[in-house]
Design a protein that fits this description.
By secondary structure, the protein is of the alpha+beta class. It is 32% helix and 22% strand. A hairpin with a 2-residue loop joins strand 9 and strand 10. Helix 5 crosses helix 8 and helix 9 crosses helix 20.
């Protein structure tokens, strides 16, 4: 027994030993020591944040005052000082000091005694002394080494320092401690930095470059692990990946998971999105990946009538001025001197290969119908040369040449883009158009692609651009065009959804969706009845999250509360709207990718079309100050949404019984969409990135907008970009700018909160089979942590 008894509290002083929830602990149970009484100071001079952390409200102050105990009750009695010392009560009533709380940390939800790890490391024959510290949700172990006889048999007296590898040290620790206590990094030092008192200066220990991947990663061991490792390397654009690396910590997201699943299918492994989210390392995932033959899909032209999908029904119920002018478009920076004929041939081949691009829509007296055409409609493709336009007479004053050239170039693209946008015609099957804008002088050119939204979505664009790059490269190399096999056709998917809609349990679904109350409308800056929410009146405010914080959002934040990027964006959005409306409730429409896993014989991983599911969500702000509580609450509200909203549109548009009841829901004025990461390494041979110039009017200017505010977000060029689209007929730009900037501020606050070493928590949806609520789970995790 080497611990130190520190006796009993002195007069006018109270000592409490409590757990992290400020609950007093019984005799013998270790906890943190808190001091109350007249000797407690008011705080730290000019350090309000540290004061708030260490000087907390005394939960027992009202009891002390009520009992009129024999103490000098003053303002200090209303506060407790959080000492940071670990202690426990002994049977005789004295208090035993057990060390500093600083050496007890929480990593990924586990409470860890750093001293336990150090004690095990010190037993290693090659280790002289060790120190373990927490850093960015990781553990770093520092060691000094013993010197051993090089040749004990011949008594030479020579010595050598044997340095164990990181993998050897991990294996040694794993024999005695659980996996969550194994450090992620090991640093060997000749000696430790010391304080003036001769103690190890932990703050002076050198932090290794954690951005550099450790050489001793765990290599693939089985055929499945080798296949998955190769796929992860290609999709995530990382040269070397170990089987213990976490998909989301490497920058993975829900859209990239679709690409992982698609390539695994091609390689003969069947995975589901749920499995990838549940088993986030290759080692775990490989154990559940099933070997299978690729799902058979028709490889020739698909023709005939195609049932409208739910999102297409949604489209045709909109009050649009021109159904043909509702497009998606991308303007790309491309390598200079691309061959325009090869680009046009590549685009024609893609229209032939992807059945959805050959749709034609007809109005049949009472409803819209769509058909897959057998004859390929050649897409319009133009090549325009800016240098030739300049030679035709654009006279520019020398002093303003750069500015005027930029203006003329932007207008040059805009005029041509607007013409292409307006020329599509769904009734004629004209759904695709493109243009190559040649800038000249060896500068990057621009490639514009315009496709009607009825047949394309965010995931489809990734497939399309990858196939465009592949096809162009094969044409450039004079090879026959060979694309990956087609997956389930959009026609077969539409037919499957119609069957699926009739089998849904309508009563349980409707109970969830119809259990909402009406919410207040968002404030308006202008409310003149004559104003319309038109496309022409729309304006956009764009904000950007810097690359460093974007990287943290992608790679570090998910593990703190087992959330995803969209969860954190929505938490910040809820806070931002509260700062504007003072309402703790927010009703908005969310979009997901709509490629639900409803049958094992369906594979949509390389299918083009509009699959988006739109569904309403009502979020409630549970706390104004406790960020952890807000994150957990929003996460649970989102997880409670059945099938992530997948069934909502199916019920509303494909099931006649449910359709009559669902329109009773309050209508949302806000839409939110997160598109994930737009970069695709497979396209880099010709595509250099998104261009800054305008793509033109993707919708008819006189058309009505569905929402007052639309928030669209994506990650491009290593930065998160959030676009806020609004109508100037209803809101001032300053209003939306303030709202957007608040969203960014709250987002940064959430990132910093999630990086705190002491921040980590589970929620009931992490253990959905256990059927526990948050309070029960918190209590259970507290008991588990106490035993560790």
């Amino acid at each position: 027994h080497n611990q130190i008894p520190i006796g009993n509290p002195i007069a006018n002083t109270q000592l409490y030993i409590m757990d992290e929830y400020l609950q007093p602990l019984p005799v013998g149970i270790p906890g943190e020591l808190y001091i109350g009484g007249s000797g407690v100071a008011r705080g730290y001079l000019q350090q309000p944040e540290l004061t708030a952390e260490r000087f907390i409200p005394n939960p027992f102050s009202s009891i002390i005052e009520h009992l009129s105990l024999n103490i000098d009750f003053c303002a200090s009695s209303a506060r407790l000082y959080k000492t940071g010392d670990r202690a426990r009560y002994l049977p005789d009533g004295t208090i035993e000091y057990l060390g500093r709380i600083d050496n007890q940390v929480k990593i990924r939800g586990y409470r860890i005694e750093l001293g336990e790890i150090e004690a095990v490391l010190n037993q290693h024959p090659n280790v002289q002394t060790s120190v373990v510290i927490p850093h960015q949700e990781n553990l770093i172990a520092y060691i000094t080494l013993n010197s051993l006889d090089e040749d004990r048999s011949n008594k030479s007296g020579k010595t050598v320092t044997l340095t164990p590898s990181a993998q050897q040290l991990r294996q040694y620790i794993a024999q005695k401690l659980p996996s969550y206590m194994i450090p992620g990094n090991f640093v060997t030092l000749e000696s430790f930095p010391l304080t003036t008192n001769g103690k190890i200066a932990r703050q002076a220990l050198p932090i290794p470059n954690l951005e550099t991947r450790e050489a001793e990663i765990v290599e693939p061991r089985t055929e499945k692990e080798h296949i998955l490792a190769k796929i992860w390397q290609e999709v995530l654009n990382i040269n070397q990946i170990g089987v213990e690396d976490n998909f989301f910590e490497l920058g993975g997201d829900s859209i990239l998971s679709i690409q992982i699943i698609a390539r695994a299918r091609q390689a003969g492994l069947t995975l589901t999105p749920k499995q990838l989210f549940q088993y986030q390392t290759i080692a775990e995932l490989a154990a559940f990946a099933q070997e299978s033959k690729p799902i058979a899909a028709k490889q020739g032209l698909v023709t005939g009538r195609v049932p409208l999908t739910p999102i297409q029904h949604w489209f045709f119920e909109q009050d649009l001025v021109n159904f043909s002018h509702y497009n998606q478009a991308v303007l790309l920076e491309v390598a200079p001197n691309l061959n325009s004929e090869w680009l046009q041939l590549a685009l024609e081949h893609l229209v032939s290969h992807h059945d959805a691009l050959r749709m034609k829509f007809e109005w049949d007296s009472s409803r819209w119908q769509q058909f897959n055409l057998e004859v390929v409609e050649t897409p319009e493709f133009i090549t325009v040369d800016f240098t030739s336009q300049r030679r035709k007479g654009v006279e520019i004053d020398h002093k303003s040449e750069a500015k005027d050239l930029d203006t003329v170039w932007h207008k040059f693209i805009l005029d041509n883009a607007n013409k292409l946008q307006a020329d599509l015609d769904i009734t004629q099957g004209k759904l695709v158009a493109g243009a190559l804008f040649k800038q000249g002088e060896d500068q990057t050119d621009r490639l514009l692609l315009v496709i009607h939204h009825l047949v394309v979505d965010g995931v489809s664009w990734r497939i399309l651009l990858e196939d465009l790059a592949i096809t162009y490269q094969q044409l450039a190399e004079n090879k026959s065009i060979q694309l990956p096999p087609k997956t389930t056709s959009y026609k077969h998917w539409g037919e499957t959804l119609e069957q699926y809609a009739q089998k849904l349990d309508i009563s349980s679904e409707l109970d969830y969706w119809l259990g909402w109350e009406t919410t207040a409308s968002i404030p308006l800056d202008r409310s003149e009845q004559s104003d319309r929410n038109t496309v022409a009146s729309s304006q956009q405010v764009s904000i950007f999250l810097d690359a460093a914080n974007t990287n943290l959002l992608l790679t570090k934040i998910s593990k703190t509360y087992n959330t995803n990027v969209e969860d954190i964006l929505l938490v910040a959005l809820l806070q931002s709207f509260y700062s504007w409306t003072n309402s703790k409730e927010l009703l908005l429409d969310l979009e997901n990718y709509g490629r639900g896993n409803i049958r094992t014989d369906i594979d949509l991983s390389r299918t083009l079309g509009w699959f988006t599911s739109i569904y309403p969500v009502k979020l409630k702000l549970s706390s104004l100050h406790n960020l952890g509580e807000v994150i957990k609450s929003v996460k649970e509200q989102l997880r409670s949404c059945k099938q992530q909203g997948f069934n909502y549109s199916i019920l509303k548009y494909l099931n006649s019984e449910a359709r009559q009841k669902l329109p009773q829901l309050p209508s949302s004025q806000i839409a939110f969409n997160y598109l994930g990461q737009l970069k695709n390494p497979a396209t880099e041979s010709i595509i250099k990135g998104l261009a800054a110039e305008s793509v033109g009017n993707t919708r008819h200017p006189s058309g009505e907008r569905r929402y007052l505010i639309e928030i669209n977000s994506a990650i491009a060029e290593n930065k998160l970009q959030i676009n806020w689209v609004y109508s100037q007929n209803y809101h001032h730009r300053t209003t939306v700018e303030k709202l957007a900037n608040n969203h960014l501020k709250y987002l940064k606050d959430l990132i910093q909160h999630c990086l705190s070493p002491q921040t980590s928590s589970y929620t009931p949806s992490d253990f959905y089979a256990a059927k526990v609520n948050q309070s029960q789970l918190d209590k259970l995790m507290g008991q588990i942590n106490q035993k560790k």
